[in-house]
Design brief:
Strand content: 15-25%
Order of helices and strands: EHHEEHHHEHEEHEEEEEHEEH
Structural class: alpha+beta
Helix content: 25-40%
CATH architecture of the largest domain: 2-Layer Sandwich
Shape: globular
Number of domains: 3
Largest sheet: 6 strands, antiparallel
CATH topology of the largest domain: D-amino Acid Aminotransferase, Chain A, domain 1
Distance between the termini: 13 Å
CATH superfamily of the largest domain: ATP-grasp fold, B domain
Oligomer: single chain
Radius of gyration: 19 Å
Number of strands: 13
Number of helices: 9
C-alpha cells in the first residue's frame, strides 16, 4: 500500500520533549540543526515529491496533505498554519500514554531484576537487588526517564557509589512525578527492531526485522534489513509475538499509525545468551521505520 499524493512533513524528532512536559513547546535551534543533519538518512521515509515544512521551511501548497513524525500539539499547529490537511491521528493524551516508558513496562519486563520506581525509596530498593551480579557484567544499572530518544533521558550508575550528580539527576527526575524505569546494564551483542503500521480498526501490518547500529550512548546511527540467519528462529518468534502483543495493547489504548519495537540480544556474566524482544516501544515514526516497512507507505490522510 502506498500514498499516491506527495505530502509535506513536520519532522519533529524531538516529540518526546513535548510529550514529557505540559504547556507550550518550541524546538531549540540546536535541535533544528541536528534534525537537518539527519534528513539525508530519512530518504526512505520522505518520498520523491514530498516537502519538508519543518525544519527546512520548504514552500508548500495550501490544501495539500500534511504528515508529522509524531502529531503532537506543536506539529499540528505547524500543519494548520501552512494550510495543510492535518492527518488523522490519536489524541495527545493517547500519544503521551503509549510513548511513556511505563506503557512498555506494563506489557512485561523481559530483563531480570528490572522494575519501575515511582519514588526514590522504590528505586533504592530495586538497586539493592542481589540478582544484579547474575545479569550485569560490571554491576551497573541503567536508569531511564519516562520519555527519551537518541540516548537522552538515561543515566548509568552504581548503587554503592552514587555521586552528588547522580542524586541530583534522580531527584530532578522524580519531581516530574512519573517515576523511572530501572534496568540492569547488560552486555548487548546485537540490536534489532521490528516496525509496523496499525490501522484504526486494529489491523496490523508488520515489516521485516532490522538490525540497528547504535553508538555508546544508545543513539541511533543506522538501520539495515536483518540478513537471513542473523536472528535465530526463537528470537524471530519472540520478536513477532511481542510486536503482535504490543499492537493489540496500542489498539486498546486508542492508538493507530506507525510504531516500532526495539529489541536486543545480550550475554550474561556466565556467558549465556538471552533475547530481550521489547526494550522500547515507539508509537510514532522512527529512523529505521521506512527501511523495515520496505514498500509499505501510509494511506493518504494518515
Amino acid at each position: 500500500m502506498s500514498s499516491p499524493e506527495p505530502v509535506s512533513w513536520v519532522l519533529n524528532l524531538d516529540a518526546e520533549d513535548e510529550l514529557a512536559r505540559a504547556g507550550a513547546h518550541t524546538p531549540t535551534d540546536v535541535m533544528r540543526t541536528r534534525i537537518e543533519g539527519l534528513l539525508p538518512r530519512l530518504d526512505g521515509l520522505i518520498r520523491p515529491g514530498d516537502r519538508v515544512l519543518w525544519p527546512l521551511g520548504q514552500r508548500v501548497e495550501r490544501g495539500g496533505f500534511g504528515r508529522a513524525w509524531c502529531l503532537t500539539r506543536w506539529a499540528r499547529s505547524q500543519l494548520d498554519a501552512a494550510g495543510l490537511v492535518v492527518p488523522r491521528a490519536p489524541s495527545l493524551e493517547v500519544l503521551r500514554r503509549v510513548n511513556h516508558r511505563r506503557f512498555a513496562h506494563e506489557l512485561g519486563q523481559a530483563l531480570p531484576v528490572a522494575g519501575w520506581a515511582r519514588t526514590l525509596e522504590d528505586l533504592l530498593t530495586l538497586l539493592r537487588s542481589d540478582g544484579l551480579r547474575e545479569v550485569s557484567v560490571e554491576g551497573w544499572w541503567l536508569i531511564k526517564r519516562p520519555f527519551g530518544y537518541a540516548g537522552r533521558g538515561r543515566r548509568k550508575l552504581r548503587p554503592q557509589a552514587l555521586t552528588d550528580a547522580d542524586r541530583s539527576w534522580l531527584e530532578a527526575s522524580f519531581r516530574e512525578g512519573d517515576g523511572l524505569q530501572v534496568e540492569p546494564l547488560v552486555s548487548r551483542e546485537l540490536d534489532a527492531a521490528l516496525h509496523g503500521w496499525l490501522a484504526e480498526d486494529g489491523v496490523c501490518t508488520l515489516g521485516v526485522p532490522t538490525i540497528q547500529h547504535l553508538d555508546a550512548s544508545g543513539a541511533w546511527q543506522g538501520t539495515e534489513v536483518a540478513p537471513a540467519g542473523t536472528l535465530t528462529p526463537a528470537e524471530l518468534e519472540a520478536l513477532e509475538r511481542a510486536a503482535s502483543q504490543t499492537a493489540s495493547a496500542l489498539h486498546e489504548a486508542g492508538y493507530f499509525g506507525p510504531f516500532g519495537l526495539d529489541a536486543f540480544r545480550w550475554r550474561s556474566p556466565t556467558g549465556q545468551l538471552h533475547f530481550q524482544p521489547r526494550s522500547e516501544v515507539n508509537a510514532r515514526y522512527s529512523m529505521g521505520w521506512a527501511r523495515g516497512m520496505r514498500d509499505f507507505r501510509p494511506p493518504t490522510g494518515f
